[in-house]
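During the reporting period the student researcher (J.K.) took over the structure-prediction task from the postdoctoral fellow and processed the backlog of single-chain submissions. One of the processed entries is reproduced below for the supervisory committee.
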Amino acid sequence: MTPAAYLDLHQKFSSEIEEEIGSILEELGPSADSVRSVVTELLCHQKMKYPLAVLPLVVHGVETGSPEPAVPLSAVHVLWWTSACYLDDLADGYGARPPAGLTAHEALLAAVVTGHVLSLRAVGSRRVPEPVRGALTAEILDCGITAARGQLGDMRADVGSASRNSVLTAYREKSGAPFGMITAMAAILAGAEARRIDLWREFGSVFGILWQMFNDQEDIASGRNEDLLNGTATYLSACALEDAGPDLRHRILDLHAAARTSAASRSALSGLLLAPAVLDRYEDEIHKFRDEAHRILGDLGGDERYLPILRQLVDQTSRLLLRPGSATG
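J.K. obtained the following structure tokens:
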């Protein structure tokens, strides 16, 4: 395998992942037709733009040379993030439209079942050895608490008092924890020793932070500007505020407050967030996390057919998408 394209790996296993999810739904039995129906609607509605369900496959491949046994964990990833992304949209208040065939309340119930019930059922797959099911279940439960804590911190954060450290804490919990969960689960399934499981969890956590920053950048570059509409404290806004003098800081905070309802304020604020000095600082921070992820992969080692895929994913996620004036809306 070349340093391939995680997309290639996903293409190879996507049908198996879909079949695994289908089996989980089928095992609910005929009495659960209504549940199966709303979950299916949500899964079709909330498609992932980037197929990171390959992560447990790659980790298992690094550990054992064979990715396929981790297909049930790829199903966990899809189920967990389908739920989390929909619930995140609901919490933000923007862009949360239910699937066409469901009411808002039905979609909410489908999200809870998808992420927090079916994820647990997935680790009971006949493809998962019984001795590790308890440890895999514990990872899901621990992640649920940590990610909820991070999401609450994100929702309650005040931009004026937020620092890079406080934003990083929220990112590590709401995004780092789910990625750390799935990479640790893959290592557990592969029979890795405790030290390597911890390293894989650490790698997933750092990758999750990088992924959140990548997501933040896409939000601005695409013109969606949902973070500005929501008044979210992002790592980019924290970089801008921590380095700003008193007058500029006051200007940024005023624009941040007005950006919820004013397109002109969002445009002006984007210009300040995309100042060259701010982006230089932001890029330096991204590169620190990128280097940390590569360091962990170096410590781990493993099958060189699969390690390059993770290195490639880290590098792709660490790109600076923003340039001065690159905001489109």
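The committee noted the following: The CA atoms of residues 175 and 212 lie 6 Å apart.
J.K. will present the remaining backlog at the next meeting.
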